[in-house]
Write a structure and sequence with these properties.
alpha+beta; four-stranded mixed beta sheet
Length: 217
């Protein structure tokens, strides 16, 4: 079903519209590229940890749809996205119970109002909040960077490692500290990293953040 949804015109329009809204507001990229990356990472997290193919597929669907609410408003975009996703998915063959799992994951993925409730929402949150990378920054003039631009641009390399045996999920970042200090990183992302830690616990894992080879969380 994921493949069909990825080619669904309504979904693509919602993602494109939401991304344009965020561009006007000065936010980092939230395009189809981000949504697909989150979808694949959410699926990978559950597969590596031994969850079945069906659950991994639900996480992948949630990842694809998680930001469509931005087409309505950035504020409460998770809740708006859940409502939109429900309307789209009820036209498909997805079972009502599975649809509600996906909708709940979308509605709970934002740190301001949500939190992991099950494996699907946990995988979505970790996949979304760890998508920190330089090429999400739209602003091309470094002199005009705000703190969010600077933090994302400072990340030269990002890797999410899932260790099934040790039950550890690690986000390894290579950060240019001439652009952004770890203090600035935490000022922006601490809430998201705490959310990832709680999501990892739902999956029976611990969450670690490493910067330039040093554990910081």
């Amino acid at each position: 079903m994921y493949k069909e949804l990825k080619e669904n015109e309504e979904i693509l329009c919602l993602i494109e519209s939401g991304d344009k809204n965020l561009e006007i507001l000065g936010y980092t990229e939230h395009s189809i590229k981000h949504c697909v990356k989150v979808a694949k990472e959410a699926e990978r997290i559950l597969k590596v940890l031994g969850y079945d193919k069906h659950q991994a597929e639900l996480a992948k669907i949630a990842g694809l749809l998680h930001d469509i609410g931005n087409a309505i408003n950035r504020n409460r975009h998770a809740e708006y996205g859940a409502i939109l996703a429900n309307q789209i998915l009820e036209k498909t063959e997805l079972d009502i119970r599975d649809r509600l799992v996906v909708v709940s994951a979308i509605g709970n993925h934002d740190e301001s109002t949500g939190g992991a409730k099950d494996a699907i929402s946990a995988a979505l949150i970790i996949a979304d909040k760890t998508d920190v990378r330089r090429n999400r920054v739209r602003n091309k003039g470094k002199a005009n960077f705000d703190i969010h631009d600077r933090v994302n641009y400072a990340v030269c390399q990002s890797e999410l490692i899932i260790d099934k045996e040790k039950k550890v999920i690690s986000l390894n970042l290579k950060i240019d500290e001439d652009i952004c200090t770890m203090f600035e990183y935490f000022d922006i992302f601490l809430g998201r990293m705490v959310m990832c830690r709680k999501a990892a616990e739902i999956l029976g894992c611990s969450f670690k953040l490493l910067s330039n080879g040093q554990k910081v969380l």
